[in-house]
Each structure stands twice: as structure tokens, then as C-alpha cells.
Amino acid sequence: MSGGHPFQGNWVVRLYERVRERGYDSLTAFAEARPTVPLHLLAKELGKDDVAGVQVLRGLLAEAERRKQVTRFVRDVLARLWTQSVPDGWPAVMDDASRGEIAMALGTWTAYTPETHKERVRQARAALWASPPPAGWRPLGSDDELLRTLLPDEEA
């Protein structure tokens, strides 16, 4: 199916067919090969009109839950949102516009975070505001050193 609504038909099957067509055995592997590509662009790569970013997000979360790597997923989502919202990295000068870009990225990050990790994300956000990273900082993936410090892996 192509050219349809993203939620028409069995979108999970469609999503994984597209991932396999591109030579990957999981959505996570597909996404990890593109560590800073925003979710909506990953979706567009998998299907111009019939895959949505939220479907990629849900698929990545489901795989992370199965692998007990939800914290890594949470870090990955911030790296992708940051590229989209704050592409030049942490600003050298904090003005209203840059504060808004950061607030949008961090707020969306919280919204996309599973309930089990929301408090940890709130603490990480507060730490970023209280002790900002150097100008130009932008996470280049889920293994970013600062993100791993703010959100270390604690999966069971």
C-alpha cells in the first residue's frame, strides 16, 4: 500500500516491511544508522505519505521496551528533537528566540517520554537549564556523553 493514510491498514506490518526492504532487521537498527535524523524524516524515508513520525516513535519505544533499553530510547529521542529544534546547538547567547527553541525541544521531549521515565527527564531538563552545556553543544545520538551523564542506563 502506498499513498494512503498512515493509520490505514496494518501500519505495523507496513512499517516493518519498509525497514526490511532497506536491509535492516529492526526499526532501531534503521534509526541508529541515522542518529540525528528527526522522527518525521525517518517516517518520510520509510513512506512518503503512509508512515507517520508517531508510528516510528511508537515502534522504537516498543523495541526499546522489549530490549529493556528505554533510557537509551529517551536519549535518542532528545538527539532527534534537538537536531530539529535547535540545529545550531546550545546558543552562546540566550535570547528569547533561543530560549523558545530550547523550551520547545525539551517540552516535546517530555511529551514523547514514557511515563516511567518522565521524572528523570524533568530532572535532566532542570539540570540543563541550571548548568547549561557549552555553546554549540548538540547531542549526536543516544550515546552522547552529557546525555549519558544526565540519563544513565538503569534498565533491569
TrEMBL record:
One of its GO terms (molecular function) is hydrolase activity. Keywords: Hydrolase. This is NUDIX hydrolase. It comes from Archangium lansingense.
